[in-house]
Amino acid sequence: MVNIKTYAYGFPRIGKNREYKKITEKFWAGKITKEDLGKGLHEIEKSMKNTYAENVDGYPTNEMTMYDKMLDTAIMVGLYNPNTDDDYFKLCRGENALEMTKWFNTNYHYLVPDFSKFNGDFKYNINYLPTTENPHFIGPFTFLKLSKGIDNFEDYALSLVKVYRDMLSGYDTVHIDEPAFVMDLKPVEVFLIKKIYDIVCDNNTTINLFTYYEDVDWLRNLVYDLPVNGVGLDFVNGKNNFRNVISVGFSKDKTLFAGLVDGRNVWRTNTRDAVNKLNKLSKFTDKIVVTNAGPLYHLPITLKGETHLSHFLYQHLSFATEKLEELNDIKNKDHSKFSVYVGDWNNKVKDRVGNLKDDDFVKSLDVTERRKLQDKILNLPELPTTTIGSFPQTKDVRLNRLDYKKGRIDTLEYNENIRKFIREALYIQEKIGMDVLVHGESERSDMVEYFCQRLDGISSLDNGWIISYGTRVYRPSIIHGDVSRSKPMTINEIAYAQSLTDKPVKGMLTGAVTIMAWDYVRKDIPIDQVAYQIALSLQDEIREYGKVGIKMVQVDEPAFREMMPIKKRYHNEYFDWAIKSFNLTTNTNPRTQIHSHMCYSEFNEIVEQINKLDFDVISIECSRSGGEIIEAFEKIDFKRQIGLGVWDIHSPAIPSKDDMVKILKRALKVIPRSQFWINPDCGLKTRGWKETKESMKNMVEARLEVLNN
Ligand code: GLN
Ligand code: ZN
């Protein structure tokens, strides 16, 4: 009889009550000492360890970080040498912080190690080496693959791995994450990986290597050629991994860490199916360990304490702690807790989606014809100025929400306060001379959760926080039933704003793809159906805007790229429904001008797909991708209007008129004036009013200067 064990990794490091966020931010504010911070982090780590120990046979240590594990790795191998905690945090935030980008196709963001000024001399930093057993490391290949500024990858890799070899030789067993193994890799890269691990493994350490998020194309090499002790495979999101193991087999002398429990979604594991898979896999190796398929930090810590979910839904969910229990169920071949989940059914919604025709995704007029129509209605000046939606979330704005939530003020008073914020925002924009106005989003704490709380079929969580980056946390909702909109979600606020001005006010919605990317999506119906249900709900909202005199609507899709699969061959399938969901959402009256907004991500590579989104105007972040994005748009037949962010809102610095004129002139060399808008990079929610007003003024003046030249 095979003795099957359980193993888990990547448990959330946020703390049961968001302690990680609280203590770190207190340290930043100078309210606690370095020792307090260290103690606090240690407590969280202890509690992670206890949860592991109560539930599974094995787990890694050293998963905690002060901010980000990619940065820690960079420090560990000598790329950066911070002497103090303050120095460490300077690499994370503030003026000279490292660039931040998305970790694979997740909503976690890591700091990007920059090798452009590195002297090539890797040295391990003894102070940063863990002293615990089975420590976790990011593997050398993934580390370098996700870094930037590397000219000769192979040279760097081969000198880096010697450091890894020495570093690891002090441990009995180590846990190494190599998610980059699931990327599209060239044969030379696979060959290099073999060279890398021949060196890394040249010690007496037991090395277990984990891959996740998708399947590994070169499974045979991975399983038979790398001299590691164990290999972790994702059998949930790695579509072909299971089939491939069945066909190429598994090395007799290696341990298979079988990822059978989803680390990225909240649904209970189909333990019956998992046990079946486990039985089949056991035929190839008797060294088999049941584990999660991908790190668990994409999930909230525990379901316990979620009091607002229906009993039925609750029974079908499983967060990080409950996933550990599932590993045990699979090991014990117990599938009594599993029953098939079927979300709330809504016949009207089902019929509407079922009856969609190709035409429903295609607007009756193309962008050029729409432009003629809209220009007459809107009568906008050349190079119109606008902002992206939110205005500073001041103390008063937050207090209003909190007071209402705590029952200290009633609905009437709450709404009256929102109206006051709208009036103030409108007054400021009018006075400064903006052309297209926004209402400021003071009623929204979060651009996704706000809609989730208003749509049927989606439930929000009480305590389900996860880390997006550093100490920034958010609470995904759960899309669990057919989604519909029973009443208007944003009309009152936008209509009120429009009633105060003759200038156009933009309606403001979050698109279906972003709602799905930042939430947990049901799996009992196909994903495109979920997208179209949300799209139709949003479409209804846009139609209603038309009825109350709103002439333009912005559908934000900052996460448009986020759910894109890692490997190219899966892209088309994704973009097909993602693009259609946007076009369905916005297929209303051609007289309503459709805007979209995107940020947070490298969009250069997917401008062709972006151009298939049939909007009239897009505002897109360009401060981080710099000029590249302009050039990318130049290469395609782009007939739409575009606003490139001339003001980087991620910093409190006020951009001068001259700064903006420079960016404008550069952009106008590529994009015709008649197609161009002037706007900041993103929403102004995190800024203060003082710098916001100044910067808006400079923006308006920059516009005048460019016009008069
Ligand atoms: N309309 C949103 C805002 O201005 C867009 C935010 C975003 O793109 N992340 O806040
Ligand atoms: Zn944005």
Write the layout of secondary structure elements.
Blueprint: E1 5-6, H1 19-28, H2 34-55, H3 69-76, H4 85-92, E2 100-102, E3 109-111, E4 136-138, H5 140-145, H6 153-168, E5 173-177, H7 187-200, E6 206-210, H8 219-225, E7 230-234, H9 241-248, E8 255-262, H10 271-281, E9 288-293, H11 311-315, H12 320-331, H13 347-354, H14 367-378, H15 395-405, H16 411-432, H17 449-452, E10 456-459, E11 466-469, E12 472-474, E13 478-484, H18 491-499, E14 506-510, H19 512-517, E15 520-521, H20 527-547, E16 552-556, H21 571-585, E17 593-598, H22 607-611, E18 617-620, H23 628-634, E19 641-645, H24 657-668, E20 676-679, H25 689-707
Parallel strand pairs: 1-9, 4-5, 5-6, 6-7, 7-8, 8-9, 13-15, 14-16, 16-17, 17-18, 18-19, 19-20
Antiparallel strand pairs: 2-3, 10-13, 11-12
Helix pairs in contact: 1-2, 6-7, 10-12, 13-20, 15-16, 20-21, 24-25
The chain binds glutamine (GLN) and zinc ion.
The site of zinc ion has 6 residues, from loops.
Describe the protein in words.
It is a single chain. Helices cover 39% and strands 13% of the residues. The chain is of the alpha/beta class. The protein folds into two domains: 5-331, Alpha-Beta Barrel (TIM Barrel); 370-707, TIM Barrel. The chain has a seven-stranded parallel sheet. It has a six-stranded parallel sheet with strand order 14-16-17-18-19-20. α20 (527-547) runs parallel beside α21 (571-585) and α24 (657-668) packs across α25 (689-707). It binds glutamine (GLN) and zinc ion. The site of glutamine has 13 residues, from loops.
